[in-house]
Design a protein that fits this description.
This protein is α/β, with parallel strands linked by helices. It has 2 domains: 124 residues, 2-Layer Sandwich (Ribulose 1,5 Bisphosphate Carboxylase/Oxygenase), CATH 3.30.190; 83 residues, 3-Layer(aba) Sandwich (Rossmann fold), CATH 3.40.50. It is 31% helix and 21% strand. The protein is built from 8 helices and 9 strands. The strands form 3 sheets. Strands 7-1-8-9 form a 4-stranded antiparallel sheet, with helices on one face. A 3-stranded parallel sheet has the order 4-3-5, sandwiched between helices. Strands 2-6 form a two-stranded antiparallel sheet. Helix 2 packs across helix 8. The chain is globular and about 55 Å long. The relative contact order is 0.27.
Length: 232
């Protein structure tokens, strides 16, 4: 059995076993138990009382975090020439069409998000094997297939994220960076949780939000009392 490092021991000692922390306390504690030399991501794991195998209990959505994600998101806008100026003005890192489709066919995926137009989706069908496994395929439900290219690019750059429940009934995503102050982390979590609540399937019975944990890239998880989210 491996021994805990000095920092891991400090972190574990600061978290009280079996305790559910308020969102405010958890956000503050995260900053005390993270010792990475890089700007670690703040992650949230929400276990839901749904059965993702049933279409009427799938939870998927998008949310614009008030304080952004803290990440530099690389955006590719695949659009017609008349939309290119708007895409560039909104901050897209790459703008074009056929030349980028050919690059992707060749294996290029040095991007985080692809935004395109409904009329172009037919051309992307052949890219499914490349984009699908990497979660890069544009989807109308996540707002990445739209005729308002500039608006979509701007929202992604400002901190819009999409998420969906996995087969285990858990929603996992990043909601900021540890360099954020505790208040900003808490505000992002509150916005994310509000969106989760709005998306509750009518077919879901019993307790909807079963547990909420906050952690950073290399920290232990902190259990959050869902009832305290609205206190922020």
């Amino acid at each position: 059995m491996s021994k805990l490092t000095k920092n891991q021991k400090i972190a574990s000692e600061k978290i009280e076993a079996g305790k559910m922390y308020s969102l405010k306390e958890a956000a503050e504690l995260l900053k005390e138990i993270t010792f990475t030399k890089f700007d670690a991501s703040v992650d949230i794991d929400v276990r839901l009382g749904v059965d993702p195998r049933k279409a009427n209990q799938m939870v998927r959505g998008v949310v614009s975090l008030p304080n952004g994600t803290g990440k530099q998101v690389r955006v590719l806008a695949l659009c017609t020439p008349d939309q290119e100026a708007d895409a560039k003005a909104a901050g897209a890192d790459y703008v074009g069409l056929d030349e980028y489709i050919e690059k992707i066919k060749g294996g290029w995926t040095d991007i985080d998000v692809i935004i395109t137009m409904p009329a172009i989706m037919g051309k992307l069908g052949a890219l499914g094997r490349v984009l699908g496994p990497r979660g890069l395929m544009p989807n109308p439900k996540s707002g990445t297939v739209t005729n308002e290219i500039g608006k979509a690019v701007k929202e992604v750059k400002q901190g819009k994220i999409d998420f969906k429940v996995d087969k285990g009934g858990i929603v996992h995503t990043s909601v900021g960076k540890i360099s954020f102050d505790a208040q900003k982390i808490a505000e992002n979590v509150k916005e994310f949780m509000a969106t989760i609540i709005k998306l509750k399937p009518t077919a879901a019975k019993g307790t909807y939000v079963k547990s909420v944990y906050l952690s950073t890239t290399m920290s232990p998880g902190i259990k959050v009392d869902p009832k305290t989210v609205d206190e922020i």
